[in-house]
Amino acid sequence: MPQYFCPLCRSPESSLVLKNKKREFYLCSQCSLTFVPSSFHLSKIEEKDRYTKHNNSSDDPIYKEFLMTLTTPLLKKAVSGVSWKGLDFGSGSSDTLSLIMREEGHEFYSYDPFFKNDTSLLETKYDVITCSEAIEHFSNPKLEWEKLWSLLKPNGTLAVMTQFRSFEKKFSDWWYIRDLTHVSFFSKATFDWLADRDHLKSSRYGNSVIFFEKRN
User: Fold this and answer.
1) Among 34, 88, 148, 154, which residue is least crowded by beta carbons within 10 Å?
2) Who's near 87: CB < 8 A, 6+ residues apart?
3) What are the boundaries of each domain within the chain?
4) With contact defined as beta carbons under 8 Å apart, do 99 and 58 qualify?
5) Measured between alpha carbons, how far apart are the two ends of the chain, in Å?
6) Closest to 9 (Cα-Cα) out of 160, 165, 193, 211
7) pTM given for the model
8) What is the rounded CA–CA span in Å between residue 122 and residue 30?
9) Alpha-carbon dihedral of residues 147, 152, 156, 158, nearest 10 degrees?
10) CA dihedral 45, 58, 156, 119 (to 10 degrees)
11) 129-157 pLDDT per residue, tens
């Protein structure tokens, strides 16, 4: 059986948890990330093609309501009269989350490597970065995690939405693994490990949203 280094913490200690007709999934014993080895990833062309089929229009009230799972608790952190400069990292083809934040008086921009690849947005610092249903697509989560924190101001907030991997339910039955663009599956234990390693304060909201801030 091949041995894979974890794409988040680089530990060589991982074990096979599932092999199906299309992919293999491994669990890292150090950070508890479940990941798909790069040999099973889609090509960039295939990946983008799948994203073009996503229904994430700003005119879709169901999609806007879905994004509010993240934006509602985030906006509760806002201080009256203070405008954030923010970035929605991995926005897809839509500006919907940024539009929601702009409607609330915040200066928000959208970045996506496939659809909104304005690299000038990666040359400044932000008060808030949102990463909504994007982190599970990261083929190199170590690099992307470091990039996110390099873009945040010292007292900034990273707001992540992804479905947390549960160890209490059968992994093979989880609908989230059926999307072939999903290659990195974060559990609560993974986020706890990151918070401890990077000296972060974290706050969870349900089973899909977590905020991080640097500890003072």
Assistant:
1) 154
2) 108, 109, 110, 111, 121, 126, 128, 129, 130, 151
3) 14-214
4) yes
5) 44
6) 193
7) 0.94
8) 30
9) -30
10) 40
11) 999 999 999 999 999 999 999 999 999 99
